[in-house]
Design a protein that fits this description.
alpha/beta, 7-stranded mixed sheet, 4 helices, binds adenosine-5'-diphosphate, binds magnesium ion
C-alpha cells in the first residue's frame, strides 16, 4: 500500500513524520530518499516526536548516526558522507537493527544494498519552494497513519 501527502511547510512535513512515528513498531527501518533540502531531517524530527522523544533532532551529517530516547528509541543515520556499505557495517548497522528501535536512514540512495525489502520507504520530492510530495510505501506504517 502506498500513501501520498503534499505538505506546504516544514511543520506539515514534521506532522506527517509524527503520524508515521506513532504507527511504527520497534525494529522498523525507515529508508528516506530525496535530495538535499527535500525535508528528510524535518520528517525525522516529526518521527522522533511520534516515537515519544522530546529531543530536537538535528542533522547527523558529521556523526553518521545519532540516538534519541523515546517510548521507542530512534537511531537517525545520515549516509551522505559514508564511503559505502562496508563503513556502515563497521559502525555496527546490524547491532542497531537488533536494538529494537526505529532506524531512520537519510540518503538511502547511498546504501540500497543494506535494505531487505521490509523497510518503510519515504520519498520526499520538492514541488516548489515550499511544497513537498511525500510518498510512503511498505511496512506497517502504511496501515493506519491516516494521513
Ligand atoms: P534534508 O534533510 O532533506 O536535506 P532538511 O529537512 O534539512 O532537508 O531541510 C528542508 C528545508 O526545506 C528546510 O530549509 C525547510 O525550511 C525547507 N522547507 C520548505 N518547505 C518545506 C516542506 N514542505 N517540508 C519540509 N521542508 C521544507
Ligand atoms: Mg538531512
Amino acid at each position: 500500500m502506498k500513501q501520498q501527502i503534499t505538505t506546504s511547510s516544514p511543520e506539515e512535513t514534521e506532522a506527517a513524520g509524527e503520524a508515521v512515528g506513532r504507527a511504527l513498531c520497534p525494529g522498523t527501518v525507515v529508508a528516506l530518499y530525496g535530495d538535499l533540502g527535500a525535508g528528510k531531517t524535518a520528517f525525522v524530527r516529526g518521527l522522533a516526536r511520534g516515537l515519544g522523544s522530546m529531543d530536537r533532532v538535528t542533522s547527523p551529517t558529521f556523526t553518521i548516526v545519532n540516538e534519541y530516547q523515546g517510548d521507542i528509541p530512534l537511531f537517525h543515520f545520515d549516509m551522505y558522507r559514508l564511503g559505502g556499505p562496508d563503513e556502515l557495517f563497521d559502525i555496527g548497522w546490524e547491532d542497531y537493527l537488533d536494538r529494537q528501535g526505529v532506524c531512520a536512514v537519510e540518503w538511502s540512495e547511498k546504501v540500497t544494498e543494506i535494505f531487505d525489502g521490509c523497510e518503510t520507504v519515504v520519498r520526499i520530492q520538492p514541488l516548489s519552494e515550499t511544497d513537498r510530495l511525500i510518498t510512503i510505501e511498505g511496512g506497517e506504517a502504511c496501515a493506519d497513519i491516516g494521513l
